[in-house]
Amino acid sequence: MIKISIVFFYLRIFPDRICRRFLWGTQIFNILLGMSFLVAGLFQCTPLSFFWDGWDGEHVGRCFNFNAMGWAHAIINIALDVWMLALPATQIYDMNIPWSKKMQILLMFGFGVLCGYPSPYGPLAPALTHPQAYRRERRAAPEPPDLWSLVQRHR
């Protein structure tokens, strides 16, 4: 939702027709990405009840690799963050204002990195701090560092 609102903000302030096409394409990609990962997360196990009951080993079912989905989501979102920071830079570069003002505006947009800086750390934290947990196929509950990955995946 945050990325969608940022793209709507960009659509308000950047009138360039080519840029707006890129922004609408980014918006469509954002929405489709969110919906696809939502559906994948909801239907990650067959049957659905195996998500809750599979930990005990007494039920029959199968789940796809949840960690791989987290990695894929993190990588795509990091690339999307970079893309969304590059979009205003192209417009600001073409503005007819002094170079120092351009740098100040780019720095302002660059503060968006502070919101995304944990993204690379999110999926790495569980694998680095609890490697033994990633040797098992399923766990009954997420390890504490996994909670940050969940937050990052659904932001």
Apparent shape: elongated
Can you summarize the main beta sheet? 2 strands, antiparallel
Which sequence of SSEs, written as H and E, runs from N to C?
Answer: HHEHEHHHHH
Q: Structural class given helices, strands, pairing?
A: mainly alpha
Count of discrete domains: 1
Radius of gyration using CA atoms only: 20 Å
The spatial strand order of the largest sheet comes to 1-2
Alpha plus pi helix count? 8
Relative strand content: under 5%
Distance between the termini: 7 Å
Care to count the β-strands?
2
Helix content: 55-70%
Mean pLDDT: 77
Q: In terms of per-residue confidence, which ranges show pLDDT below 50 for 5 or more consecutive residues?
A: 134-138
Care to describe what's here?
This protein has 155 residues and is an all-alpha fold. It has one domain. The protein is 70% helix and 3% strand. The chain is built from eight helices and two strands, in the order ααβαβααααα. The chain has helices at residues 2-13, 17-42, 50-53, 66-93, 99-110, 113-116, 118-129, 144-153; strands at residues 45-46, 62-63. The protein has a two-stranded antiparallel ribbon. Helix 4 runs antiparallel to helix 7 and helix 7 (118-129) packs antiparallel against helix 8 (144-153). The longest helix is centred in the middle third of the chain and has 28 residues, at 66-93. The termini are close together.
